[in-house]
Amino acid sequence: MTAKTTRTRSSASREQQNDAAPLSILAAWEKVFRAYLVKARLAKDVVKADLTLSLQALIASAICLMTLVGIGLLIWITLLLTLGYGLYSLGAHWLFIPLTFVVVNVALLYCTYGIFKRVKQSININASVDMFSDND
Question: Which of 36, 73, 127, 130 has the fewest CB neighbours in a 10 Å radius?
């Protein structure tokens, strides 16, 4: 009876160990899954805060840019009015003053467009896209 009882007990303990192993593995995976859920919630909060901050910075930058453009326009108009008044004081013909304004503005437009054209060629994110893609 002792040998049979020992075999029965040892086979029963093996079955319990075999049954316990999947349960402990399942419990461990459940802990890992819950940890990932917590990490995802925290990441979501961080991303949300980062997007909110970025949006606020974008709005503030747009307002500052519009203010700078407005100030630049006021300065440019003041310079053109000063130039016009100076030409008028020197006795320039009435047609010469607006023609001077047009020539100055066209020259500035041409220079700005040339700079824009050169800078636009530098805007290229293909290297960054290629780095993240697996298209080798």
Answer: 127
Compute the CA torsion angle 12, 18, 24, 26 (nearest 10 deg): -130
In Å, what is the CA distance from 3 to each residue of 7, 8, 35?
6, 9, 47
Q: For the chain, give the mean pLDDT.
A: 82
Q: What distance in Å separates the CA atoms of residue 102 and residue 96, rounded to the nearest whole number?
A: 10
Name the CA radius of gyration of the chain, rounded: 38
pLDDT tens-digit map of 117-130: 988 887 776 766 66
Long-range contacts of 26-32 (CB under 8 A, 24+ apart): none
Q: Which of 75, 73, 101, 76 is nearest to 87 (CA)?
A: 101
* pTM over cut 0.70: no
Residue 101: other Cβ atoms inside 10 A: 15
Q: Using CB atoms within 10 Å of the CB of residue 124, give its burial: 0 to 12 exposed, 13 to 18 middle, 19+ buried.
A: exposed
